[in-house]
Amino acid sequence: TDRDYACNVAEKLRKAVWEHHFPGASQSQPKGRVSISVGAAAFPDDGDTAAELIEGADAALYMAKHRGRDQVALAQPGNRSR
């Protein structure tokens, strides 16, 4: 998929997890909610193979966590490993 669609799907997933009321979350989770960070990569901009896409999405995930968690980050153009 393209980068815009990947970002939209990832954001919908992030929002759905945040809005879901998990039993016990109010006692065990910061802010009383479960949150996720998501890294996304798109073909062919971020990789030509599954391994390259996973690598890009993984790097983007760590970027999202570093920026403060509970957010979506896209693989950075030009950061392909080849």
Entry summary:
This protein has 82 residues and is mostly helical.
Description:
46% of the residues lie in helices and 7% in strands. It has 82 residues and is mostly helical. The mean pLDDT is 89.
Secondary structure layout:
Blueprint (H helix, E strand, L loop, with lengths): L2 H17 L5 H4 L9 E3 L9 H17 L5 E3 L8
Parallel strand pairs: 1-2
List keywords for this structure.
82 residues, mainly alpha, two-stranded parallel ribbon, 2 strands, 46% helix, 7% strand
Q: Separation of termini?
A: 21 Å
Q: What is the spatial order of strands in the main beta sheet? A: 1-2
**Helix and strand run:** HHEHE
Report the principal-axis shape: elongated
Largest sheet: 2 strands, parallel
Count the strands? 2
| Structural class by helix and strand composition | mainly alpha
Indicate the percent of residues in helices.
Answer: 40-55%
* Rg over CA atoms: 14 Å
